[in-house]
Amino acid sequence: MSNIVLWDGDIPYYDETITNEENKNTAQMTPYLLEDGQRHGCIIVFPGGGYTMRAEHEGEPIARWLNSCGIHAFVLHYRVQPYQHPVYITDAKRALRLVRLNAAKWNIKPGKIGVLGFSAGGHLASMMASRWLEFEENGGRAPDEVDHLSARPDAAVMCYAVMDFAPVMGEADPEFADLMATVKYVRKDTPPCFLWHTADDPVVPAEHTLKWALKCIEMGVPAETHVFPTGWHGMGLAADQPDSVGQPDSVGQWPGLCGKWLKGQGF
């Protein structure tokens, strides 16, 4: 199955002057569908990269791991800089709605379509989990049948994610930092979450994940949360780290923990 283009006809916020390599062939998603003829849950993967690029090791390898857990996956090639907010969330919502529209055709369980993101992709996943009802202007594009479907994910996995922009941006633009601080927008109907971070992450402090978890507790939203003692930012699957054998607190066990959680959620 080839890549799926998100937008037919007019592309919202399309800028024909943007020709940098990172934004060629974007606003698409790559499918990783199991071929056993059975219905499975599905996760849309948002690679990280600071909204300036999309890290390859947080894309296909994650989808393959999800497949090994018996879960369909898509990797979203959302548009990045020089595109700006709300282009990222517009692409992400479109992707989820397209999967929802085609759930029966692609053997996807209805009501089991989630998102998983790393770093900035984790921020995007948190936007989906807290603000799926917002940013519907679509850059002046007329709505179609896809836009009438719900963009709320049924689960959200956030990996070393940015949740509060103020510490990241400083005081450069406090109004925009507040807009992007997703932890302030957690709702009572935010979907169940799985979060992980490392305590010594030098790029995005673990406080981002802890703030989100505390907000979920306040709102009554289930949120399994893991903070591992050590590990650099951008670890992806952390496949080169010791697993739980003899290292019960190692970050290398996060895929197993997450896979078990997703199965518990019916994926």
What keyword list fits this structure?
267 residues, alpha/beta, Rossmann fold, 8-stranded mixed β-sheet, globular
The shape is: globular
Strand order of the largest sheet: 1-2-4-3-5-6-7-8
Q: Please summarize the sheet with the most strands.
A: 8 strands, mixed
* CATH architecture field: 3-Layer(aba) Sandwich
Corresponding CATH superfamily = Alpha/Beta hydrolase fold, catalytic domain
Give the overall average pLDDT: 89
For the terminal residues, how far apart are their CA atoms? Answer: 22 Å
CATH topology: Rossmann fold
- Give the quaternary arrangement of the chains: single chain
* Percentage of β-strand residues: 15-25%
Structure description:
The protein is an alpha/beta fold and 267 residues long. The protein has one domain (4-8, 20-264): Rossmann fold (3-Layer(aba) Sandwich). The chain has helices at 60-68, 87-101, 120-130, 165-169, 174-180, 207-219, 254-264, and strands spanning 4-5, 28-32, 40-46, 72-77, 108-118, 156-159, 193-198, 223-228. Helix 1 (60-68) links the parallel strand 3 and strand 4 (72-77). Helix 2 (87-101) crosses helix 3 (120-130). 45% of the residues are buried.
